[in-house]
Amino acid sequence: MTPRQSILEYLENFYRHSAEIAYVHQRGYRHYRWSYGEVAEVAAQFARELEARQIGKGDQVLLWGENCAEWVAVFWGCILGGAIIVPMDRTAAPDFARRVAGQVTPKLAVCSSDLTSELRSVPVLQLENLRELVSRHPRSAYSYSGIERSDIVEIVFTSGATAEPKGVVITHGNILANLETFEPEIKKYLKYERIVHPIRFLNLLPLSHVFGQFLGIFIPQLIAGTVYFHQTLNPAEIMHTIKSERISVLVAVPRILQSLKEKIERDFELAGEKERLQQQLQLSAQEHFGRRWLRFRAIHARFGWKFWALVSGGATLDAETEEFWRRLSFVVIQGYGLTETTSLISVNHPFRLGRGSIGKVLPGREIKLDENGEILVRGENVAAGYWQAKKLQPVAAEEGWFRTGDLGELDAQGYLHFKGRKKQVIVNAEGMNIYPEDLESALRAQPEIRDCVVVALERNGNAEPVAALLMRAAAGEKSDSDAAIRRANATLAAHQQIRRWLVWPEPDFPRTSTHKIRVNVVREVVQQQLAAPHASTTATGQSPLAELIAGITRRPPQTLSPDAALEDDLNLSSLDRVELMSALEDRYQVDLDDRTFAQVKTVRELEQALRSSAPEPQSASYEYPRWAQHWLMSSVRWLVYYLLAWPATMLLAAPRVEGRKNLENFSGPALVISNHITYIDIGFILAALPLRLRHRLTTAMGGERLLNMRRPPGDWFFLRRWLYRAAYGLTVGLFNVFPLPQRSGFRDSFAFAGELVDRGHSVLVFPEGERTPDGKLHTFRSGIGLLATRLNLPVIPMRIDGLWDLKRAGKQFAVPGKIKVRIGEPVRFDAADNPDTVARKLQESVAGL
Q1: 588 part of a folded domain
Q2: Domain count along the chain
Q3: Range of the domain at 452
Q4: HSE on the CB side for 469, CA within 13 Å?
Q5: Of 470-479, 574-583, 612-621, 753-762, which gets the smallest average pLDDT?
């Protein structure tokens, strides 16, 4: 095969697969799907935008935002125009981003909307509005020339586990050295891929990292695969997405795989079947793949039948977690590489796995181990250099060898095994080498320990190992940690014994954007804790939990005391609680039960809830009826509506509709809001809306009321229970409603509303939350602001007048035209708008009708 000159030759695959879905990403409560052709067209338009701004070859563009199709389009557009991409982690601190911008002097920045204000010295484009911003340019393919293998594609600034940024310069040749290795191997299996096409990847790695780019941009286009980007790292939601979107391969860091493992174990424990799971895992140790699959088919059903592989990268996957997934008969693919080696040095073949290893060295690169076991790499995949002081500095040392700083071991079959970081090796007073990974493995095997880090504590020129522990239980941590340490030491050699340890004072360790533990920060805290045992904050003096709450409440974290009340002291509204709960689940990788979380009153209680990894099961759950939108049910519903409901509405009231002209050129979908007077309001709304909106309207109804109908009390007379359940079915089916709880569980309701909109439905919500007791318009709940901003839909305000007078008079009929339904002009809001402000504006718009 003739060597390629640039990675732009792979862009031809985007045109070749133009009709295939390339990317699906969630924004707010919506899912957006982009085809390969759409990505290529917007990339060409963005390249023309760069040309119009006189940004050309060698100029730098800062790309800072969430994983999404627009990110990929900007990436390819920069390459088409010869510009150098400077990708930044979405979670990077603004100060870090500004320091990077000072080093590379970009001519343009493309950022997520909430980050645009952080870079005042650089022209900025909003990532979310990219398609609209470049729409003035032609969508035809953009011609390029003069791009060679030695040209720079990107400068990746990574802090790793330290705080100092370091720019790694990646060229076309560096990337091609990896892709040209994978391409012929992938082609061997394309004939089998047709059977399960398309392969769907759930990519949880940031595109700002090279490994995330390989699994999110470069590898999928070789097989016309679909890449899903996920907003949350919550284990339950990841599992839901894998099943609902029929994901084939999960791409994540080891911590995610560990969290999913714990989620499965926790679910079995809550069902009283934890011992049975352990027994089944032991029985499956030596079984064939197929036999293991049958044994754990119930777990496979939870992930969906198409899911088969987990790709782990960015850090080392512990042997226990790898073995857990193997015994469940999932394929676990590990690789090894650094940003300086353009991600991959070695990788496990999905069908020829080397258990416990990080794979075999890929063709086209050389490795060797020095006398200390350090891994050295040489090849075209090694980065062109470091970007320091605005110039290129060499990466490789003598004879082109790059020192990875990692220790490894090669077995007889040629598989590479990771042994730890060279600089983290602890040399004790006896001159014995202690590898932290060995001690951490023994500690993680203890049931009381959720996670741990072993660091070196300097003593008289030597060092001793000290363990920082994350315990599973909030109570009895001292005795639990003592017992766990004793059992771990029993499995370790004499020179490896752990004699000093501490329980980590926060719910989780500080981590990088790829969830690597910031070992240097942990080491500083360990030193502070041992010097001052009563210290309880991180090395920065601020609790990570306090910082997270501060981000929601917009107050300094140092002002948050453990006894601060979430509502009274922090003024945490119900909306704030929704945002805080989502952020906590993302940050600490736990499932928080809505009902339990609703009872949390103080910061201290919140921390205790986080420390408990097993939430109490919900006493009741809401059902989101997808069957009500099925075409058959829709046909029955509209037959009943036009035969009964619509004639009854006209007969009883014959409402006068005003403002329908505001919807003349509007096709939907939309978020429809209205004041709430009686249980028959929906009949007047339907009668007022044009046909194209009326036929695909779904209504949010009080969740608690629907739940009571679906699950009436067990002590009721059976006939009464049957009547309630029948009423539930008729209400949901004939009025197309779904639950919107007032107290807990509303996050799932909002997500279901987003799913409805994705399928083309409009959503009707009564923002007051309950029927008016006095005929007046009451305060809109803040949740309507959240829906309006995160559904990214036009909002149609409506108002019903005259019905309250009819209700108060106890009349069943009204003079034609007495009841008026007014329709306002559709309004839109930006995702960055404050939800409380949006709710007030919507209330004003309905009041103004």
Answers
A1: yes
A2: 4
A3: 427-506
A4: 32
A5: 612-621
